[in-house]
Records
---
Amino acid sequence: MKPRCCIDKKSVANLSQTVEFLKIISEENRLKILCLLRGGEKCVCDIWQYLGLAQNLTSHHLKVLKDFGLVSSKQKGLKVIYSINIKVIKKYSKLLNNYLNSYGE
Amino acid sequence: MKPRCCIDKKSVANLSQTVEFLKIISEENRLKILCLLRGGEKCVCDIWQYLGLAQNLTSHHLKVLKDFGLVSSKQKGLKVIYSINIKVIKKYSKLLNNYLNSYGE
DNA sequence: TAACTATATCAATACTTATTGATATAGTAA
DNA sequence: TTACTATATCAATAAGTATTGATATAGTTA
């Protein structure tokens, strides 16, 4: 009756990690950024201009995404190019799917 | 280069819906409740006692989940029994997977 | 009816976090 | 060097929301 997800240490840890991931991507601008980066790497100015955000706000959200490992950055001249970390996203997607899929059976 | 998800009306609407869903489930107690209800329908007192939450707080989170359609409730004597709406969850899972899957392709 | 149990609601507070404005840093070019 | 561009950081504020305490409501049982 009591599902494992709320009992043993590993399950609790997974739930915590999943919630952290969800908090990161449950912000509209951040999800848009991830969405935008799916089309290929972009510099910060491309991102904020395209999304209509303030430059510093964009930097802030990129930092949140980067700190969590969802994106990476590299300097290229004056610009900083951000790209998406597919593997990391897949990892958390998988964790999340433990909570969203496999109902019933 | 510019992904559809940030341009046309339908994509913007999908993103908004997805973010709303994410905000609902990105709260630890709510995700735990969903997790718990996967094991079968439960009354409120079972839920708050099992999760160690205050009764009113549990009611609050259940209301949030219910208002969004993720769970349903029915009265059974003194108790109110909550159950999970698998179809709704699947619907939003699908929406979400548009953002988390199919990278690179 | 009255007393009791289970749940919901309301107001206030606490907490987190998004946003803004100002400024700093780093790279580039003259 | 100075001037310029792109990005990051910091402090302050604003906005949203989780939590708590008190109370109300609904169903049950005596």
Note: The radius of gyration of chain A is 16 Å.
---
Amino acid sequence: MSLLQTTTKPTRERILDAAEALFATRGFRGTPLKEITELADVNIAAVNYHFRSKDALVLAVYERCFHPLNEERMLLLNQAEAAAAGAILTLEQVLNALFEPMMRTWQTNRNFILLVGRLQSEPDSQLDLFIRNLYAAMIQRFLDAAHRAAPDVSEADLFFWIHFLFGGVVYSLINSQDVGKRYPGQSLSETPDAFLSNLISFGTAGLRSRSPLKSSRS
Amino acid sequence: MSLLQTTTKPTRERILDAAEALFATRGFRGTPLKEITELADVNIAAVNYHFRSKDALVLAVYERCFHPLNEERMLLLNQAEAAAAGAILTLEQVLNALFEPMMRTWQTNRNFILLVGRLQSEPDSQLDLFIRNLYAAMIQRFLDAAHRAAPDVSEADLFFWIHFLFGGVVYSLINSQDVGKRYPGQSLSETPDAFLSNLISFGTAGLRSRSPLKSSRS
DNA sequence: GTCTATAACCTGATAGAC
DNA sequence: GTCTATCAGGTTATAGAC
């Protein structure tokens, strides 16, 4: 085994892997610790040793999953701004930095999008607060960039708009297998690049059509 | 009590009311039967008598909630088509028939939208299949109308588009209290009429901007 | 139809040996 | 760090009296 990737991962990571997959497909309350430890091939007491409780494990799974994604989004936005050398980004560029990492992640790990869906389906005040904090800085960063790109739109409308698009993307990806079954080979979710470019033109055109913009100054 | 509305509802309905509220705020697995029967002020054994099991109760709650809504959507579409007297409906009219009943329901009962969110939780379950059947006829009906309204767009794209908008609406409504807290009085969710008209212009403009339409004939 | 009592089961957590 | 054994609590479902 030595240097090959068949080297056994540490217990803690194996638990996280198993929990991520099971939480995604069955939900938190729907998956007993027993199943997690069986899938991870570790002893049932290991969860309580490495994490403190099941709730803490849930938080750890989300943190491992979402923190890098948000970092990547902000990195992309920083890079775009640096490349623009002081010029204001377009709405298209802002949306790209927001959703490109998401679509890229989607190609290799479909669990994470199901975990997002779980946030809607299993409200847990502690988890909810945790996620909110995890997202706060990123959301504010993109809100500011979007506001510079579209100064005529109120921040409230931009906030709403970003969340609307986010909800649409999540829902579409979660239910993408339905589209795929119904229209084989024609699902946008199967071609992430096309999905992203459609999303960006869809989202920007939609925002520009809204009444607050119609009655904009200048 | 006699004729007043304080007349006690039948046990079966009281259970459905309590279950709807608790499922919405806590999820299925998150709410024990005990809490439902306590809120409904009925004996715990009544659930098993009136419904057969907890799973059957879940289905009953969804059926009572979504069936009338879908009927109303189709009724509105029928009426619009009748009023058009053979002419083809616009995309705007189709979207209005689809989302107007939803926004109207939202004003009086906010539980139902949370119940939609809960559906993301158990993808493979009996509930998922049940809901799919409940929606199938309605979705096909609107898909046909949308295809007549926008013959240049493929059915696969229209299917995707409708679901994307649906996801955006659900997400926005579920998280509407966030927008409300952050921007008091400015949340579109607080004014359902504005929400609906914005949604319709947003959705149609977005669809018309998409690449398949850009390269449309005529 | 409604209630009490209880069965049968599963859950997360921990103590303590190795 | 890992395991076995077990606890304490909560869950759905049902049998049987009223």
Note: The CA atoms of residues 1 and 100 of chain A lie 36 Å apart.
---
Amino acid sequence: MLEEKQKRMTKQKRVVYEVLASTKSHPTADWIYQQARREVPDISLGTIYRNLQVLLSEQRIRELNYGKGQSRFDANPLPHYHFVCEHCGQVMDFPIGSPPVAAQLLALAPGQVQSYRLECYGLCRDCLEGVEIAK
Amino acid sequence: MLEEKQKRMTKQKRVVYEVLASTKSHPTADWIYQQARREVPDISLGTIYRNLQVLLSEQRIRELNYGKGQSRFDANPLPHYHFVCEHCGQVMDFPIGSPPVAAQLLALAPGQVQSYRLECYGLCRDCLEGVEIAK
DNA sequence: ATAGGTGCAAATGTTTTGCTGTCAA
DNA sequence: TTGACAGCAAAACATTTGCACCTAT
């Protein structure tokens, strides 16, 4: 059996994880960098990216990518869904405990599904309200 | 009502769309470029990207992004699901006619869902077979 | 003591853009 | 005729990497 290569716990790695785990906002690497500098002023952006890769390989976090610009990261490694507001750009979680996508649907896949990702797009409640008022 | 800015049909735009529509492989911009050069030898990669943006804005195609490397494009603008083989990297469609994700699930979203995207990851049938044989 | 991590800066890879000439309408 | 589009090349942007130094174990 393959041994995982040993990974050290440095203050940089701890801070990257803490920053990510302390927010629900699914931030970008650069946002994490700005926050992490408060704790470790000379941390570098390269270190942020390197530690995000390490945390991904440890399956402690997930990467979310939406085509344009930077990736976003999520400290919740469990399966859950995201809602992206196309007006304000915010990325929100579905309420915890949302039921899984129907197994019958996944069974139609042209292969064996190991994980999946459901991303919804639309208008969040705040933006919807703004649109209603503007009418 | 806002008028859409007029869009011309150039041979470059037609070729970009035809190349994309002629394959089920969800190709990258660069692959489309290589194919398009057969028809229009001095087409440029910039033109490929510009026309893909135009086609996206016309909602005739969709962009698929999987974190690493280049975006992929899909000439099918209708809602459907994708299966990504984590072994060979291939991106496949679910069979047409697959039922939609349950409305009860979408109703839990923290906003009004206008569209959604379901991406499944795992091993495709060919790769699964390879793994079985290797045992 | 030392392997693995860090900061820094340069490199990479993808996508966008400025400019000038061309062509579809 | 003319303004939207093309080709070309440079710029922009996010992310990765090489290297010499540092530090957790």
Note: Strands of chain A lie at 62-64, 72-74, 82-85, 91-93, 111-124.
